[in-house]
Specification:
Layout (H helix, E strand, L loop, with lengths): L6 E7 L10 H8 L4 E7 L14 H13 L2 E3 L19 E6 L12
């Protein structure tokens, strides 16, 4: 990463509904901060567009917000969650949302 002034990194955990809801105002406020912004973590937002097993309501909402607020959704290359029940397939829970970041990559490498 080069050519950045301020870089804002935010770790996110959004509990499953109905506890917390993905609010547009939160993302608008964070992406309005001066500088490049990276939000990363578990948004409980799933979409087949970023290789999840299915799309949920938060995922649909996130896709609309990405278009409206103009940020990128960057998924990992491999699943980030492996259920302890073998009947469930591994899935992606953690993604990154980026705005104004001069970074050339198509996904996040998992550690």
């Amino acid at each position: 990463m080069t050519d950045h002034g301020i870089l804002i990194l935010v770790s996110v955990y959004l509990p499953l509904p109905p506890k917390k809801e993905l609010l547009r105002s939160y993302l608008e406020a964070l992406f309005a901060l001066e500088g490049a912004v990276i939000l990363s973590g578990d948004f409980n937002s799933k979409s087949t567009n970023w290789n999840c097993n299915y799309t949920n309501s938060n995922g649909r909402k996130m896709e609309v917000l990405a278009e409206d607020i103009h940020f990128n959704i960057v998924p990992p290359r491999s699943p980030t969650h492996y259920h302890n029940n073998d009947n469930y397939r591994p899935d992606i829970l953690d993604i990154a949302l980026m705005k104004e970041v001069a970074l050339k990559l198509s996904c996040i490498e998992t550690l």
